[in-house]
Amino acid sequence: MISRISAIASTELRILRRNLWLFMATLIMVLFALALTFAGSAPTGTLGVDMLTVPVASMTTLSVYLAPLLALMMSFDAISGDRDRGSLALLLTYPAGRGEILLGKFTAHIAALGFAMTVGFGTAGALAAFSGGASAESLAALALLIATSIVLGAVFLGLGYMVSGFARSSTAAAGMSAGLWLIFVVLYDLGLLGAVVMDDGGTFTQNIFPWVMVANPADAFRVWNIAASEAVAVTSGMAGAASALPAWAAPASLLLWPLAALLLARATFGRVEP
Amino acid sequence: MADTLIVEHAEKFRGKAQVLDDICLSIAPGERVALLGHNGAGKSTLIKSILGLTPIRGGKISICGAAPGSAAARAATAFLPEAVSFHPALTGREQLAQFARLSGARADVPALLERVGLSDALDRRIGTYSKGMRQRLGLAQVLLGQPKLALLDEPTSGLDPISRQDLYAIIDELAAQGTAVLIASHALTEVEARTDRIAIMRKGVKVADGTLAALSAEAALLTSIRITARAGEADRIAAQVGGTRLNGVSVEIHCDAAAKMEALRHVAALGDAVADVLMTPPRLEDLYRHYAKEGSA
Predict the structure, then answer these.
(1) B157 touches A at CB < 8 Å
(2) How far is C-alpha B105 from the geometric centre of its chain's CA atoms?
(3) B138 touches chain A (CB under 8 A)
(4) pLDDT > 80? residue B141
(5) Which of A37, A247, B69, B183 has the fewest CB atoms in 10 Å of its CB?
């Protein structure tokens, strides 16, 4: 079983390397992280935090958009691409089960995503520490950012596989992935914002809103990073919503989502007839 | 020796349409069976059912005694999908090595690729392959790990005549080592010479199953005799031998196997009026047309 998963994973990694996906994802992460580190270092003095704190806050915001996007772009044709080529039927006649195929692809994709995140955010952290000094606290915040970004990516890899198994073609899967990204990352928050404004400080805002918010993996990611570092919370201005929740809420949500997404993907894949 | 593949009374519906209707089919080790039928006759559905990729509603399928899709059945079966393609970024060697690792077979990948004539393209990306080369790569993975049962869906599509010869040579090799081979095909003339038995499907029903000779006898197809007449004699010949005029100079007679010699004697008696005689026995094409288009099931 392990050898079959690794056979799928090594092939997928080779594909990611060869079609320059790994390179492009890493490049995008490095460029954005560097831009935020240097553009974000300007207001450092007024908040009284070190060179790395403000970039970590802006990189958190960046990662909310980029991690799901990169993950979906890697995963949307994981099943539909093989089906379009006609090789899915063949693959499924080999002794590898559907769960093994999915796990193999996931292993390769999460490794590539982890590499891009670590190199991108790590470069920014190293440069900030080198030029302005970084406290232990801000380094811990950076480490958490990298780790949670990878988990957030895992959620959307799973959702991407689900869409890929669900869609009739790769083109449809791409469109559905874009829709999924828009809903989780943009529309969900807009909807919540509207509800809060309508509610005008009532029970919804007080008791229900924080839970609904943290149910979305992208928001859970944000809340977790903010709650973990006081300095990051200061600079991002999201401390209010985060403080209304118990400390375990955001981590629980973010860690449960990848499992749920992969189980959904497995269930969808199980119903695919190549 | 027990049959490698046994399909008993397989039934399958898609929506309300019945795509497999009481299909029974068995293949012995080393036997080569052609599966013929129009597009949509249910050939691919039957193959997918045997592979366990799509469930059947009624009946039973067993591959070396195992259920379709089970680990034992997967290990025993090789499959070549119709018009298969692989990831364009991989090379032929890498793709075949992956299949070898998945199947758990210890395989000599370069030798297999050489066997299907891809040794020059070993380390080229599949994206640069022609359709025929992708088909050969698909065939190479069929040869992995000595399968007990090989299911080939339109194996010759996209292949040039020489490659087709190679393909059938490889199929013969497989059969010689005891693999039961099922070939779904449209290429009737090739299948005619290269298989032991022929099964014909129409609208989900198996309408014929047997050797070419047995099916011909059962269908009682007529041999056609075409007589080319000397100028001006065609009408007289048509009247005497009881055939139909095709054009100014030709007359055609249809007769069954038993009446053939009688008809030829008639023609010989006509003497100088006949310029040429062409006799065509029923071929697979006629047989196929007979079974695939016949009105009743």
Answers:
(1) no
(2) 28
(3) yes
(4) yes
(5) A247
Torsion of CA B193, B197, B200, B204, to 10 degrees: -140
Q: So what's the ipTM on this one?
A: 0.84
CB of A1 within 8 Å of a chain B CB? The answer is no
On the question of pLDDT at B275 being above 90, the answer is: no
Q: Is the pLDDT of residue B296 over 50?
A: no
The per-residue pLDDT for range A245-267, each reduced to its tens digit, is 788 888 999 999 999 999 999 99
Q: Enumerate the residues of chain B whose CB falls inside 8 A of the CB of residue A8.
A: 98, 102
Is the CB of B91 inside 8 Å of chain A's CB atoms? no
Do β-strands B17-27 and B32-36 pair in parallel, antiparallel, or remain unpaired?
Answer: unpaired
CA distance B34 to chain A (A): 20
Domain limits, chain A = 2-270
Residue B29 · residue B35 · CB < 8 Å? no
Non-local (6+) Cβ contacts of B160 within 8 A are B132
H helices of chain A, where? 2-18, 21-40, 44-47, 53-75, 80-85, 87-92, 98-132, 136-166, 170-181, 188-199, 203, 209-215, 217-228, 230-236, 239-243, 249-270
Q: What residue of A is the nearest CA neighbor of B96?
A: A11
Nearest to B102 among A89, A95, A273 (CB): A95
Q: How far apart are CA A143 and CA A219, in angstroms?
A: 18
Q: Which residue of B has its CA nearest to A14?
A: B90
Handedness of CA A97, B80, B64, B108 (dihedral sign): negative
Which residues lie below 8 Å from residue A222, measured CB to CB, with a gap of 6+? A60, A61, A64, A238
Q: Report yes or no: B184 and B178 within 8 Å, Cβ to Cβ.
A: no
The class of domain B5-217 in CATH terms is alpha beta
Predicted TM-score (pTM) of this structure: 0.85
Percent of chain A at pLDDT > 70 equals 89
Nearest to B239 by CA among B278, B266, B211: B266
- Determine the distance from the C-alpha atom of residue B197 to the mean position of all C-alpha atoms in its chain, rounded to a whole number: 9
Distance CA A218, CA A214 (A): 8
How far A160 CA sits from the closest chain B CA (Å)? 19
Q: Classify domain B222-281 at the CATH topology level.
A: Alpha-Beta Plaits (3.30.70)
At A196, the pLDDT band (50, 70, 90 cuts) reads confident
Candidates A216, A105, A107, A113; CA nearest to A161 is A105
pLDDT number for residue B294: 63
Domain boundaries, chain B: 5-217, 222-281
